[in-house]
Specification:
The chain is of the alpha/beta class. The chain contains 13 helices and eight strands. It has an eight-stranded parallel β-barrel, surrounded by seven helices. α5 packs parallel to α6 and α8 runs parallel beside α9. The C terminus is likely disordered.
Amino acid sequence: MLGPVILAASRSDKMRRLVSAAPGTKQVVARFIAGEIVDDVVPIVRDLTARGLEVTLDVVGEDITTVEQSYAARDAYLELIGRLKELGLGERAEMSVKLSMFGQSLENGHELALANVRPVVAAAAEIGTTVTLDAEDHTTLDSMFAIHEELRKDFPQTGCVIQAYLFRTEEDARRLAANGSRVRIVKGAYKEPAEVAIQDKPEIDKAYVRIMKILMEGEGYPMIGSHDPRLISIAQELARRAGRKLDEYEFQMLYGIRSEEQNRLAAEGHRMRVYTAYGTDWYGYFMRRLAEKPANLLFFVRSILTKG
């Protein structure tokens, strides 16, 4: 029951100030956030890719309130792409973007987000990599999918994310699989009402498996975003049944979580991509990581008590 409480706290400015000031916060944040600036994350990208892993990079900070901030977000990704070009990483390092960070929630937000994300996707394509549009709460999804469809006209490798706990997702998965899209499936990490989302964890897991099957049997490229050993095993079996080769789908896990399993999958020949976030506005991302798994919250509390 703690998950919904933590997700509610992720939207609270008061909680943001309290958590940011807590003595143990910096230590725990470092587990999930690769740094604050590009120079912090470059050595991590080099290390991960040298170990046979792939990377998707997220500049955190979706809670913007001005058009100027949306431009700054665009420029932060363009700076990142410039550094990736210097590293010569190509498709080993892609990017994940939240359209809210590009102005989606502002006035004329759909048009603004599309205008901001297009040069990022174009610059990524120029260095041989791509961009995945992250899913956010259910009110943003129609806009996200429309932008995804528009971008794929010129950049067909542009990916998107779907969330298993939403009732609409199986239908979205069928459409995207038929279109040959790159699709990351996750369970979902936003506080959604019962009218639009499954609330029971076992039922979410069942939906996740049904959606994986749709993606594996489709024409696209499935990206399995999960740390759950059982779901990973099921994904491997579904891929085998669908006749997929190891390079025709991939696993994705968060930076700082189950690193040994990430290395194991890569050693077995699987494409294993590490979702690596960095930036100064880390609070919302950090709180969703705590909400996803009680062990993360316990780790945080122990760190505060130790440092207090």
